[in-house]
Write a structure and sequence with these properties.
- The complex is a heterodimer of chains A (113) and B (114).
- Chain A has strands at residues 5-7, 10-13, 19-24, 31-38, 42-50, 53-56, 65-71, 74-79, 88-95, 103-104, 108-112.
- By secondary structure, chain A is mainly beta.
- In chain A, the strands form two sheets. In chain A, strands 2, 4, 5, 6, 9, 10 and 11 form a seven-stranded mixed sheet that branches. In chain A, strands 1-3-8-7 form a four-stranded antiparallel sheet, with no helix packed on it.
- In chain A, strand 9 and strand 10 form a beta hairpin.
- By secondary structure, chain B is mostly beta strands.
- Chain B has strands at 3-5, 10-14, 19-21, 24-26, 32-38, 44-50, 56-58, 64-68, 73-78, 87-94, 102-104, 108-113.
- In chain B, the strands form three sheets. In chain B, strands 2, 5, 6, 10, 11 and 12 form a six-stranded mixed sheet that branches. Chain B has a four-stranded antiparallel sheet with strand order 3-9-8-7, with no helix packed on it.
- The chains are: A mainly beta (113), B mainly beta (114).
- The interface between A and B is medium-sized, with 25 and 25 residues.
Chain lengths: 113, 114
């Protein structure tokens, strides 16, 4: 299995631009999680899906952030418009039903200038 | 609300010496506890997990952790560290095995001295 695949690995964009981060979970996993990692705040859960349905998006910082999971093999996290304070590493993780430990992707390092 | 505290931001250990990384949690019910390791530029890798049963759990790479309910702790240990163990270590707690998301500590940065 290729693991959780995230793209792009690095993204540099200008303030005000739309940014889309992509994630392919492990086949057969039915839970998907988006986390953000910064030096100041550590790892924060943004949103998670069970069986492609968003369950809890209370961690999404603002309306500028949105996430979708149109099918079991693909999810996106979109920021529109992006701001410099959104600069962080964004991780996607997936797990089988019941959790019991996730598998993380390698992350997308986002820099907004 | 659940929370995790890792009191040590940085720890320096000589290669071959023993290691203990501290983790304290706050959780209202029986916790599901995890330790993850993150190498620079990489994602997080699961080292070990505790759900129930034996309070001493074994993980990968020679790591173990002990759950102590009375102290609300889940400390990570290794008898002899290797230079390749230098990384960031995260403790996490969650309900239902993490099915509703995990709460992570801020991490401990492990430095290995030759």
């Amino acid at each position: 299995d290729a693991g959780v695949i995230q793209s792009p690995r690095h993204e540099v964009t200008e303030m005000g631009q739309e940014v889309t981060l992509r994630c392919k979970p492990i086949s057969g996993h039915n839970s998907l999680f988006w986390y953000r990692q910064t030096m100041m705040r550590g790892l924060e859960l943004l949103i998670y899906f069970n069986n492609n349905v968003p369950i809890d998006d209370s961690g999404m910082p603002e309306d500028r952030f949105s996430a979708k999971m149109p099918n079991a093999s693909f999810s996106t996290l979109k920021i529109q418009p992006s701001e410099p304070r959104d600069s962080a590493v964004y991780f996607c993780a997936s797990s089988a039903r019941g959790g019991y430990g996730y598998t993380f992707g390698s992350g997308t390092r986002l820099t907004v200038v | 609300a659940q929370s995790v505290t890792q009191p040590d931001i940085h720890i320096t250990v000589s290669e071959g010496a023993s290691l203990e990384l501290r983790c304290n949690y706050s959780y209202g019910a029986t916790p599901y506890l995890f330790w993850y390791v993150q190498s620079p530029g990489q994602g997080l890798q699961l080292l070990l997990k505790y759900f129930s049963g034996d309070t001493l759990v074994q993980g990968i790479k020679g790591f173990e952790a002990e759950f102590k309910r009375s102290q609300s702790s889940f400390n990570l240990r290794k008898p002899s560290v290797h230079w390749s163990d230098a990384a960031e270590y995260f403790c996490a707690v969650g309900a239902g095995g993490g099915a509703d998301g995990l709460t992570f500590g801020k991490g401990t940065h492990l430095i290995i001295q030759p």
